[in-house]
């Protein structure tokens, strides 16, 4: 495919290194010990790409630390999804889950979220950093992907890729000036409310007595300050296992809820180690991991038991929603 | 007895352990992994220590079908003996670079010299690669050195740290948190994207540690 990078088309004016370039992650490198990584809320990033007709695999910016500001040095189109950050483009408000054209010289500003925790910025052509092990996602532990394996900082210039086949616009003037929003009712996550996520029992579920299992499923768990892309440590009652036999190291997936001897669960997330050794009580289903990604420190989470069929149906529904969005916008005709 | 459990809706953890680590089970896991890879709908097969994680695409294959496949392929799996290479790892033991050497000696009831002699006197086998990019779980640690992990993990253990924990030996491929004990430092690079194959060590490879001065 022809590459037509506009070197440094985005300039970071204000950021913290917690903000990073992400895509759908590395789904085929677990045997190298490399985390899946990618957007904590993959659905939101995918929807942003869909809104502007990008291939869903393209990279965008994950913003979790605010304020965040960037300047466009080229005419383009961008989408904002995930958290509602009361964003504005040169002072004009941009709703969440919305796409608008930007002209060279304009500044996009994101403030502290009113709803959710992580916002995603997708830009026509995607952020065009080198692909490492099949992905552009920043892996800060491994020190690769994104820009030199680190988060974004003031002064960074990010290149954009050429518009892909389905892009609504190589020409931003063809895009409605007022923008375009997601027609589907997206599930909202309010940081001040209980977030309920579905779980499947994991390998050591039976190490916990029925009343402890019941407790795990009935109490609200608070997201502690120790919460990042690697995982969330949760605070609540102590979960005591019936058996403390140590386990041999084994592969784990994002969403795994481990219970170390402290009895306080840890949910492993995108940048988690690929192997672990702690007992696993349950796993947050893939489709609901985005709800955790949008829950802030201090927020509360409840767990509810699901079946594998329900988990797979939820994942399929997200897949279908994205396809429906692309079809509604005419970016996919199949 | 094979124990299958769900790891979310798109992965199954296959636990083949029966008590302590068993090299024959590990060889069967390698053979099983080889057979499973490349089967339609199977995305990744990740050997652990006497266990293996099978990741699949639920949009294309059902969990029940994958479970049936796992049982069938496990039943037919032989013992894989990978073409092992031997890698010699020079280690600067102790001092500021191996700050747990003295406490490990104390806990195991050995002298510091004996800990070094036992750690560097064994042939280790790479049981599994994982946790961090290029990290290896090494089996073959002298049982006298199988001390418990640190009560409080360190938030940062440097790249190159030669470590022991949970009955295994290992080498840190990058700077990361770890609850393992640091015996010394090496300058070998376990993971490098500059190489066509980023991994220095693969399952089945043999590792020998050698004390060096200075």
UniProtKB/TrEMBL annotation, chain A:
GO molecular function: ATP binding; hydrolase activity
UniProt xrefs under InterPro entries: CT_A_B, Cyclophilin-like_dom_sf, PxpC
Parts forming coiled coils: none
Domain annotation Carboxyltransferase: ranges: 31-321
SUPFAM superfamilies given in the database record: Cyclophilin-like (SSF50891)
UniProt-listed Gene3D superfamilies: Cyclophilin-like
The entry's keywords: ATP-binding, Hydrolase, Nucleotide-binding
PANTHER family documented for this protein: 5-OXOPROLINASE SUBUNIT C
Protein's UniProt name: Biotin-dependent carboxyltransferase family protein
Organism whose genome encodes this protein: Acetobacter garciniae
Lineage of source species: Bacteria, Pseudomonadati, Pseudomonadota, Alphaproteobacteria, Acetobacterales
UniProtKB/TrEMBL annotation, chain B:
UniProt keywords, alphabetically: ATP-binding, Hydrolase, Nucleotide-binding
Domain called Carboxyltransferase: residue spans: 2-201
A Pfam entry, by short name: CT_C_D
InterPro entries, per the entry: CT_C_D (IPR003833), Cyclophilin-like_dom_sf (IPR029000), PxpB (IPR010016)
EC number: 3.5.2.9
SUPFAM superfamilies xrefs: Cyclophilin-like, PH0987 N-terminal domain-like
A GO term for molecular function: 5-oxoprolinase (ATP-hydrolyzing) activity
Database matches in NCBIfam families: 5-oxoprolinase subunit PxpB
Record protein name field: 5-oxoprolinase subunit PxpB
